[in-house]
Design a protein that fits this description.
single chain, mainly beta, six-stranded mixed β-sheet
Length: 631
């Protein structure tokens, strides 16, 4: 029996598995890659703290269920078998890379308690596994979850557990399964079919009629179909799509250009459709960052070919039976005129009527021709209209055969454009306009700034203009209007700017008092001088010049140091010559000499050379006389 234990599974749709581990197939024992587990490998039945990978679970000799692995349809499929120890340890560990940030994923595995209920252990220690997700650097745990106690059962019972988490800012994670159980009899388990998938919204795929599938007869193809993927918003916050199609529901291919929420497809054969969904467009090409909508299946059932029909017939397919029904009636022959005949046209599916009515004879515009269906000829009747006589002096008449009336043409001569003081009266005797009237006299008593313009609208002279505005004056100026030049004459002179200013002074003209205001202040004499410095104001640069030189440092002995004394403004010299070594410690031939370069006392001198002696003599150096005594 297989069940789901709700540690936490993706509540929406998942993508294809990014990572799977089913431990392979075969009849031999095998070990996990280094670093995958903290348990010890055993090439046989594993004791406490050991594991093996095998296609069998050792069975009754060990009071364990003898079962196949969990992976469906794999011959000699293997599973990870662990005899858990008392201390916590990692059953399994792996690293997944190339993930997308801020994306939801599901980690799952199938577990089974191998101990048979009421066997040797008799209510043994249940298995208890922790699922743990850490960041790729293994410095932070992103999510954990415990299966809780999974007790022994009388029959084999695989359980699937899942853990859902979000990567946050991470692009790689470490997946772990850790032992939570206690040591002792029991706590023996098998693990199989570990999977890692992306987790997205629960997204339905439906057509315009909200159907999740479609069944057609072959006679209905090609069939245009609009499909829409509708996510429920449970996981993603934004949506990007790439539609796919498949002929078998296993191998999928992207549909070129189909990147909208709705796609239009043409169904010709049975197939499947779904949408890849991601939170960013760039993630659509990354299988580790996508989920899929539900699959939409289109089934095309073979049926009879569409029958051959007459043009007036319609073949209708019954989708339930895939059988065609033909209906329709030939159009009725229409009535014809005395000169016409009717023939049925199978191309246009209508009756073609042929024959031509006898040509209507030419008539005057006031005449009417009426076709006589009895004699099959044209009868002509009518009289020309009478010409009008009450015309104006400028009008003439012409008969219009198009409108069949007399056209009166001619236009009264246009009234000439008049000045506002003129009046025009039409003279029917001469057939012209008579004009009378005189323009008003222009005024003469104008000011120099005024202008007279005749207003044709009011028919009077309008006087415009304004005396020039008196200019704005400086405080020392006066103005008088000159009617000869029609301008203001300005006179006056600005008071002279003072010249005897100090270098730091500025003169600014005051328009209120009409005088020059002098401002400025001599720069402050500096006070933070060295003891050897003096100051003098420079009227050229308008600054204080600082003069003086620090006293020269004296020449020192090698043991001396000079520090400048700002209080006395002199150099203070300190230091003592190194003490001469005690002469009594020197050999009789050595002397002390002070070296001013190295600033130390140097010992110099050489012991007198031992003289040549006879074979019977002995030479001994005498430190008192500083010579060799020969005996």
């Amino acid at each position: 029996m297989k069940t789901h234990a709700q540690l936490g599974f993706c509540q929406g749709n998942s993508g294809d598995a990014i990572f799977t581990e089913n431990f392979g197939t075969g009849t031999s024992f095998s070990a996990l890659p280094a670093g995958t587990t903290t348990y010890t490998y055993s090439a046989g039945y594993p004791l406490d703290g050991a594991y093996t990978v095998s296609n069998g679970t050792f069975g009754n000799p060990y009071d364990w269920h003898q079962i196949e692995d969990h992976t469906p349809s794999d011959a000699n499929g293997k599973t990870l078998i662990v005899n858990a120890e008392a201390n916590p340890g990692e059953f399994y560990r792996t690293t997944i890379t190339g993930l997308c940030q801020n994306t939801t994923y599901e980690f799952s595995a199938w577990l089974i308690n191998l101990v048979i209920a009421n066997s040797f252990c008799g209510g043994g220690i249940p298995i208890n596994v922790r699922f743990e997700i850490s960041n790729g650097s293994d410095t932070a745990v992103l999510r954990t979850g415990d299966t809780g106690p999974i007790t022994e059962t009388a029959t084999a019972n695989w359980n699937q557990f899942g853990l859902v988490f979000n990567t946050g800012n991470e692009t790689s994670v470490i997946l772990r399964m850790i032992n939570n159980g206690a040591g002792g009899c029991g706590n023996d388990l098998a693990i199989d079919d570990i999977e890692f998938k992306s987790c997205g919204d629960n997204a339905t795929t439906e057509d315009a009629a909200n159907n999740g599938s479609l069944t057609l007869c072959s006679g209905q193809t090609p069939y245009a179909l609009d499909l829409t993927a509708t996510p429920d918003g449970s996981v993603y916050s934004s949506y990007f799509y790439q539609w796919q199609e498949s002929t078998d529901g296993t191998t999928w291919n992207d549909i070129s250009g189909a990147t909208a929420q709705t796609v239009g497809v043409t169904v010709t054969t049975s197939g499947y459709y779904r949408a890849k969904i991601a939170e960013a467009a760039a993630n659509l090409n990354n299988p580790q960052c996508i989920s899929f909508s539900d699959e939409f299946q289109a089934t095309v059932t073979p049926g009879d070919p569409m029958p051959t029909t007459e043009c007036w017939e319609i073949a209708t397919l019954n989708p339930a039976t895939c059988i065609w029904t033909v209906t329709g009636t030939q159009p009725t022959q229409p009535p014809t005129a005395c000169y016409e005949s009717a023939t049925f046209n199978n191309v246009t599916c209508t009756w073609d009527i042929t024959g031509t009515q006898p040509i209507q004879p030419p008539t005057e515009c006031w005449e009417t021709a009426t076709f006589n269906t009895t004699s099959c000829v044209w009868d002509i009747t009518g009289t020309q209209p009478t010409q009008p006589t009450n015309l104006e002096c400028w009008e003439t008449t012409t008969f219009n055969t198009t409108t069949c009336t007399w056209d009166i043409t001619g236009t009264q001569p246009a009234q000439p454009i008049l000045e506002c003081w003129e009046t025009a009266i039409f003279n029917n005797a001469t057939c012209t306009w008579d004009i009378t009237g005189t323009q008003p006299v222009q005024p003469t008593n104008l000011e120099c700034w005024e202008t007279a313009v005749f207003n044709s609208a009011t028919c009077i002279w309008e006087v415009t203009g304004t005396q020039p505005v008196q200019p704005t004056l400086e405080c020392w100026e006066t103005s008088i209007f000159n009617t000869a030049t029609c301008t203001w004459d300005i006179s006056g002179t600005q008071p002279a700017q003072p010249t005897n200013l100090e270098c730091w002074e500025t003169a600014l003209f005051n328009n209120t008092t009409c005088t020059w205001d002098v401002s400025g202040m001599q720069p402050t004499q500096p006070t933070n001088l060295e003891c050897w410095e003096t100051t003098a104001f420079n009227a050229t640069t308008c600054t204080w010049d600082i003069n003086g030189t620090q006293p020269v440092q004296p020449i020192l002995e090698c043991w001396e140091t000079a520090i400048f004394n700002n209080a006395t403004c002199t150099w203070d010299t300190t230091g003592t010559q190194p003490v001469e070594p005690d002469p009594s410690t020197l050999a009789c031939w050595e002397t002390n000499t002070f070296n001013a370069t190295t600033c130390t006392w140097e010992v110099s001198g050489s012991q007198p050379v031992q003289p040549n002696i006879a074979c019977y003599e002995t030479a001994t150096f005498n430190d008192t006389t500083c010579s060799w005594d020969i005996t």
